[in-house]
Write a structure and sequence with these properties.
By secondary structure, the chain is α/β, with parallel strands linked by helices. The chain has one domain: TIM Barrel. The chain has 12 helices and 9 strands. Strands 8-7-6-5-4-3-2-1-9 form a 9-stranded parallel beta sheet, sandwiched between helices. Helix 9 links the parallel strand 6 and strand 7. Helix 3 crosses helix 4 and helix 5 runs parallel beside helix 7. The longest helix is centred in the N-terminal third of the chain and has 18 residues. The chain is globular. It starts with 7 loop residues before the first strand and ends with a helix. Bound molecules: zinc ion. Zinc ion binds next to strand 1.
Length: about 300
């Protein structure tokens, strides 16, 4: 039934050699020992996930745009939201300007830096970005840190959503102490008009993500990723169980479908879209609600017609 339904993927990345360089530039360099440990972990992830090496290829903006458009058309995806990997995402900005009706981008700022709210303002007003991505465990700040409040305040004024990666993550430099979605509770409380998206349903902090739904109406979840985190729970969950709980607790208006597709050699993670569609059918989710989850909710947050 959902085969002809429009899809707006709410969580993707543009991973090329250039965006990887841009994302590394602002992080402090790793020592040799840490870099080696990071590589070993990456290799373990690649073998577990049975994916090709994650070293992204050199690719021009035009070539990347052509490739993603072909992938979208092949798999019935109307549009996608591409999340920046670090501040000043220059290549991503040029990429989405190729097809502004099908590619949308979220920018990235370091919220504790003086004037970060003005950088965000300019990215939204003049550089074509439609939202903000923050990554507390890599950036090393708690989401509730009041130094970030000017950024939240400006995002609320601009009417854009802010997406957070909490929970487990591939990046070796991450610090799980900043990864708990409960950090978002005071932010959700103090900025009731600001849509906050918890990526990957908390990537392991599933219970905490569900608590947020109880406390605040402006918290959303995305379903993206391969779901590695589901194994690392005291009782492993299946994607179906996760979606079932999300539907019960967040309801169909606050769930955003995402695939976390990112990589040239991997292409679009079409199997995740198929799995989502099958589960939504099995759970007998009404067609209208399926349409919201597969794109309508993100379109509402982006304020685009759907
Ligand atoms: Zn992601």
């Amino acid at each position: 039934m959902t085969a002809g339904m429009k899809v707006l993927d709410g969580h993707m990345h543009l991973l090329t050699a250039e965006t990887a360089r841009e994302a590394r530039d602002w992080l402090p360099p790793m020592s040799l020992a840490v870099a080696a440990a990071s590589r070993r972990r990456q290799e373990r992830y690649e073998s577990e996930q049975a994916i090709a090496s994650a070293d992204p290829p050199e690719e021009s903006v035009e070539a990347a745009a052509r490739r993603w458009l072909t992938e979208f058309d092949r798999h019935g995806v109307t549009a996608g939201v591409f999340l920046a990997l670090g501040p000043k995402p220059g290549m991503l900005r040029r990429f989405v300007s190729q097809h502004p009706d099908r590619f949308f981008a979220f920018t990235f700022v370091n919220p504790w830096e003086a004037g970060a709210e003005n950088v965000l303002d300019e990215d939204i007003r003049y550089r074509g970005f439609r939202g903000l991505k923050l990554y507390p465990s890599i950036q090393g700040f708690h989401a509730h840190d009041e130094r970030a409040y000017p950024v939240y305040d400006r995002a609320e004024t601009l009417g854009i959503p802010v997406l957070f990666h909490f929970g487990v993550t591939l990046d070796y430099r991450s610090d799980l102490r900043y990864s708990n979605p409960l950090d978002l509770h005071p932010v959700a409380r103090d900025f009731p008009g600001l849509p906050l998206i918890v990526a990957h349903a908390g990537a392991g902090f599933f219970r905490e993500a569900l608590f947020l739904a109880y406390h605040a109406a402006n918290v959303f979840v995305d379903t993206s990723g391969s779901g590695t985190w589901m194994r690392y729970l005291p009782r492993p969950l299946s994607r179906r169980e996760v979606l079932e709980r999300l539907l019960d607790v967040f309801g169909p208006d606050r769930i955003v479908y995402g695939s976390d597709s990112r990589h040239a050699s991997e292409g679009y993670r079409h199997w995740l879209l198929r799995e989502h569609r099958e589960i939504l059918e099995t759970l007998r989710v009404p067609e209208e609600d399926q349409r919201k989850i597969l794109g309508g909710n993100m379109a509402r947050l982006l304020r685009i017609p759907w």
